[in-house]
Design the sequence.
């Protein structure tokens, strides 16, 4: 008596290989998509965090200043420079050669206000002060990622503050 064992045919093997291959490719694509989405979210978070922190820091210093040093400031142009006087402290906000926002006090070495992971692509200060009123400064700030060309993201902020005198 001959016993016929049930085996897979060539067509069944090819179908199973195709299904397994499709599942593996789908899983790999999903993993790459999630990885890219995570990286994009990290870039956005880094850019937005740096922009907000830098803008808030400058606005706080403007509000605490006694006067604007208009002669040392550059208004309505990129890269702008803002020179403030608070008591005996002279503060200057500007960009360094790498697009990092910096603040120098009393001529000392500048302190970075943004990280090396981001670049300030636009920094414009506008003097909104009217004759006989306290100083009022508008800041326009565009910050972009400095991670490379794979993911590009920029964040545009604008705000104004008045000296408290």
Sequence:
């Amino acid at each position: 008596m001959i016993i016929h064992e049930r085996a897979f045919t060539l067509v069944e093997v090819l179908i199973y290989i195709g299904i397994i291959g499709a599942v593996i490719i789908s899983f790999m694509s999903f993993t790459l998509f999630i990885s890219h989405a995570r990286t994009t979210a990290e870039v956005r978070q880094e850019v937005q965090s740096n922009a907000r922190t830098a803008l808030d820091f400058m606005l706080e210093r403007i509000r605490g200043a006694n006067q604007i040093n208009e002669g040392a400031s550059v208004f309505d142009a990129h890269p702008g420079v803002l020179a403030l006087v608070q008591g005996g402290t002279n503060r200057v906000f500007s960009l360094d050669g790498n697009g990092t926002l910096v603040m120098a006090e009393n001529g000392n070495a500048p302190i970075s206000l943004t990280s090396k992971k981001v670049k300030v692509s636009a920094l414009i200060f506008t003097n909104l002060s009217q004759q006989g009123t306290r100083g009022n400064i508008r800041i326009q700030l565009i910050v972009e990622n400095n991670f490379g060309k794979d993911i590009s993201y920029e964040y545009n902020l604008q705000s104004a503050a008045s000296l408290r005198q």
About this structure: The mean pLDDT is 90. The two ends are 109 Å apart (CA to CA).
